[in-house]
Hints:
This protein is α/β, with parallel strands linked by helices. The protein has 2 domains: 79-163, Four Helix Bundle (Hemerythrin (Met), subunit A) (Up-down Bundle); 169-373, Rossmann fold (3-Layer(aba) Sandwich). The protein has helices spanning 2-9, 11-25, 42-50, 77-84, 86-101, 108-120, 125-141, 150-163, 187-200, 217-228, 241-254, 271-288, 306-318, 337-345, 366-373; strands at 175-180, 205-209, 231-233, 259-263, 293-301, 323-327, 349-353, 361-363. α14 (337-345) links the parallel β6 (323-327) and β7 (349-353). α7 (125-141) crosses α8 (150-163). The radius of gyration is 23 Å and the shape is elongated. It starts with a helix and ends with a helix.
Amino acid sequence: MALFKFLKNKKTKEQESENNNLNTQIPDEPEDIKKEAETLSTEEIQTISNETENQFPESPNISETPDIPPEKKKVSLFAKIKAGLSKTRQNIMSGVEQVLKNFTKIDEELFEELEEALIISDIGVDTSLSIIEQVKDIVKREKISDVSEIKNIIVRVITEMLEKDNTELKIKSPTVILVIGVNGVGKTTTIGKLTHNFKEQNKKVILAAADTFRAAAIDQLQIWGERSQVDVIKHQENSDPGAVVFDAVQAAKSRNADILICDTAGRLHNKKNLMEELRKISKIINREYSEANVEVFLVLDATTGQNALQQAKLFKEVADITGIVLTKLDGTAKGGIIISIKNELKIPVRFIGVGEGIDDLQKFNASDFAKALFDME
């Protein structure tokens, strides 16, 4: 079909345009990386730390119970995920079902129409092609001739994609979680919700405000810390992120914290500086907290669709990402991007956001997600 061929041929140009848009949306950064990671000794970092404010602050001064919004009516986790994916489910399956209604036999034209429907539903070109190729193989291998069976085969293929190499996240004590992602994806809010989840598991959590570049990032993290009544290690705006992380590591060790969550700056326009900053932070953690398990979570906004996939590809070039957190799934029809992320990047999805409530950031379960996505019990 014309639309399919147009999308397929223009893929490279679209990706380049998306990358350029990413770079223009992110403000210039200060020259806050003063030294190479290899030249910073423990004593030098300690000197930087001593010259900044709020070294090892005690627990936030909270005189009253934090003002946390009332919880929504309790529903089962599956029902919550299913409701949150309603727009995505309609976006993907309505196109597929419409195509199937127009055909009485399985042929190449049917497969081209299905490819087009999947691409339009924001699953992406490469992943859509892969899905249809697998569908063709199953049809041929199992000698299927009934068009009505195609929908079930598509569901089967996508479910297998989501479940492939799916490993359960196990947070052991002590763990350091570096949270990365561009501004506006819900990074700080995600940290607040992760903190709430871990507190519900009786874990002792400390937060590090290492995004010293963005205005108000420190204040926002402080508010989330107060809500969950956890310590927030912070310095002044535009201070050295490495010094913040150094202080936070020492605080986590001295206070026997189970989990240290570090907010980081989200800028991609200068990948060299971002890489140097992340490398320096990682070096400090490895040297000062060698016994800790380290996770790197990339936060992506599901409402941006294929743009989120491009962000993931760029961040993968500069960081050893161990998991994806996909936010705002409940507010978009573009949740099919999660299939592309799993298929193309081979990075596990760890958490998904299916609502605005503090308890609406849920662990990703591939089987439950697939059942909710395709309205199966």
